[in-house]
Specification:
The complex is a heterodimer of chains A (264) and B (161). In chain A, 85% of the residues lie in helices and 0% in strands. Chain A is mostly helical and 264 residues long. Chain B folds into 2 domains: 35 residues; 108 residues, no CATH class. An 8-stranded mixed β-sheet of chain B has the order 7-1-4-3-2-6-5-8, with no helix packed on it. The longest helix of chain B is centred in the first third of the chain and has 26 residues. The relative contact order of chain B is 0.16. The chains are: A mainly alpha (264), B alpha/beta (161).
Amino acid sequence: MNLPRMNFFGQLGAGTLAAIERLGRMALFLLEVLGHAGAMVKRFSLVIQQLYSVGVFTLPIVLVSGLFVGMVLGLQLYNTLVKFGAAESLGLVLALSLLRELGPVVTALLFAGRAGSALTAEIGLMKATEQLAGMEMMAVNPVMRVIAPRFLAGVIAMPLLAALFSAIGIYGGQMIGVGLLGVDSGAFWSQMQNGVDFHEDIMNGVIKSFVFGVVVTWIAVFEGYDAVPNSEGVSRATNHTVVYSSLAVLGLDFVMTSLMLGEV
Amino acid sequence: MTNRKTVEVWVGVFVTIGLAALVWLAFRVGNLTTTDVANGYRVEARFENIGSLKVRGAVTLSGVRIGRVVQIHTDPDSYQAVVTLNIDGRYKNLPTDTSASILTAGLLGEQYIGLEPGGSEEYLKEGSRIKLTQPAMVLEKLVGRLLTAFIDKPADDGKKK
């Protein structure tokens, strides 16, 4: 058993088992959080407190990025569309790309970087300084008091932020397209209104952003709760939150898009 | 921690503008206001070829949109395309001999159905069928016909000489 080859297999097996065990813990953790989510209706002030730190603080970065993404899209799409004599379709292409893809995805990535990492660091630090253990000593369930309100706040905030991102992006694209490049304003809006469907495009974007909200916040609170309680562990957990939730968002986006378009 | 009152106000502002953005998207960007054909009635039209007509395509009367295409399928017996139109209830006085043709917006734009009223005294009702139809012009067929016309002509001239 001392052969180096056996050692390799042993390590691989241990790593796989640990990963599966962690996934299982993560699923059970989500169930526990969801179990306490109902109790949050009675103590909604806790959720409001978290909405402030998760939603309101993420607002400026989402608004500024949305405006610039919309403006860049306006410039780029105009340059391509004008070659086909279809510059009037700028509004439609802009709205569809923002509502279907960029709004939910970019907002989720920003959300993971801004709010998700902060959630992990906060919860991880609470664990490292034994505040969570202290709560348990006082017969307060930390999952209910700390995790559930943060989770709910993230899930509520994400669709709102994504809608704001899309709206301000369309506004930015309109500023560039109509204001700077001289696309006809009537054609810009009427093509958009004819081509964008409420259920197919807008609601699917909202569903996407809701799912991203659940996934990003879930990963963030779990990483914090599961962090190794020292400064290195918390920093690693914060790092993991951003990496894992970004990957999860991009991967899930592909899966959801193919389901929604019904191509697969 | 920040003052509780300020927190509440800011969260209120956040939720309000978030919802406002969603409503704005729905009404200004989307077509939530225009998709609904008010208490419409459905009529059916059969075409040889519908080109690239799609569900939700427009149905127009002298250029004004009065309804939408709600369903397209083929009839397995006659091999024709059966298009179901939902026409706004305000336009109840369409004669039964109204003709429907598939037109194209612009040169290569999307296709829609244009209705032209006939002279009958009776009107179309829920479930009735438009009998006079004109299929879509398919660009490839048109080009093909044009090419054969060009090729045939010199041959004819040759025979005459």
